[in-house]
Amino acid sequence: QATSIPGATFSWTGPHTFSSNDQNPVRLPVLMDYAGIYEVTAFLNGCYATRLDTVVVNETPLAPWTKWLTFCQYYKPDPLQAMGSNILWYTENVDTMIGSTVPPIPNTDVVGETFFYATQTVKNCISALDSMKITVYPKPVVTVTPNVVAVCPHDTAILKAIDTDPDRTRVVSARVSLSV
């Protein structure tokens, strides 16, 4: 940006044949090749002044590395983790949310899938998002039949455990020999 001088005209030059007569030109898109030294000359009443400005274009960092996780219902998880620098966490639509530096702790009370998102910032440049899918599986409910077994010494008792989840029907049997 050049200082405002009433009545002055400006001439900018820079890398890759950049030129502009605007007082404060904008160069879009921002590319790595556009880094370098820019020169501005202000002309007023036959006089001129020239200044140089160095533009540094930092690379956009890669998204932070995250891992998709699975938990059992009611498990007490630790805060989520991502590998990167200056991590920001998002729990909803990131276009309308401000990221948090505090890693979220997934709620495992509710069965299903939840997504969390993370970015990292390196040299004031923000990475793309990485998503973290958290899957919570239902805690199985097991019944044992019979729940009281009366047997004589050296007899065999058969115990059955039944998972009552309608999506998974399993019967587990065990033959137990008792010695007294």
Description:
The protein contains no helices and twelve strands. The strands form three sheets. Strands 5, 6, 7, 8 and 9 form a five-stranded mixed beta sheet that branches. The protein has a four-stranded antiparallel beta sheet with strand order 2-1-3-4, with no helix packed on it. A three-stranded antiparallel beta sheet has the order 10-11-12, with no helix packed on it. A hairpin with a 2-residue loop joins strand 3 (36-44) and strand 4 (47-55). It has strands spanning 9-14, 18-20, 36-44, 47-55, 69-72, 87-90, 112-122, 125-126, 130-137, 142-145, 156-163, 170-177.
Give the percentage of residues in beta strands. 35-45%
Element-by-element helix/strand order: EEEEEEEEEEEE
Residue windows where pLDDT falls under 50 for at least 5 positions: none
Oligomer type: single chain
Report the total helices.
Answer: 0
Supply Rg: 33 Å
The percent of residues in helical segments reads under 10%
Bulk shape: rod-shaped
The secondary structure category is mainly beta
Based on DSSP secondary structure assignment, what is the total number of beta strands? Answer: 12
Largest sheet: 5 strands, mixed
Please outline the helices and strands.
Blueprint lengths: L8 E6 L3 E3 L15 E9 L2 E9 L13 E4 L14 E4 L21 E11 L2 E2 L3 E8 L4 E4 L10 E8 L6 E8 L3
Parallel strand pairs: 5-9
Antiparallel strand pairs: 1-2, 1-3, 3-4, 6-7, 7-8, 7-9, 10-11, 11-12
